[in-house]
Amino acid sequence: MFKIVNWMIVSRSQLLIDLLNFRWPQEFLVKLAKAQPGNMVKMLAVQDNSLVIIDLSTIDLQQAYQLQRIIEREHNGIHSVFINFPRQMDAKFLVHPATTSGVFYSDATLAEVSNGFNEILKGRSIIPQDLHQSMLNLDNEDDSEQLTIREREVLQALLSGSTNLDIANQLFVSESTIKTHLYRAFRKIGVSSRGQAIAWAQTHIHEVRV
Description:
Layout: E1 6-10, H1 14-28, E2 31-35, H2 40-46, E3 51-55, H3 61-74, E4 79-85, E5 100-105, H4 110-121, H5 129-142, H6 149-158, H7 164-171, H8 175-189, H9 194-203, H10 205-208
Parallel strand pairs: 1-2, 1-3, 3-4, 4-5
């Protein structure tokens, strides 16, 4: 179990921040720091936080992924929670079993979120059952951290300068599906941006050919 003393909320919604800052310090007896996506890294370097709450209603998935990767790489002991997690988009790649303590869908009520955070305070992980099951199914399908054939195809296409829409048209899938393949591949090869992925593919081109 990890003891939470300081939390950080990363959001562009001042209304949400004000609401949570009014409720949570009294409800959970914690200090709540507020950060924009652009200054989260700087604030984490100078503040002793043990939980970072990322608001996905105001942060796009790529930026959220990059923030999550920074937490994983540079801040051992900090856990993350995602609120306003989208049901309609495949965002499972954001969830890391070792560092993600909670996921709350966008239709979760404030009471449900509060109850979930009470469980997190007890050291439990709060991940919706359907999301947890789909992650298990994904693990069973992949069976390793090796790139899938489709992930290799997408990385290969990056080298030609193709956009996500170009790749989607080439592979006859949606643009959001291509983004999902990219984010999963990013995690597997240990990069956090498109440029880093291209550089990796250039160095390991023999590994991404299909």
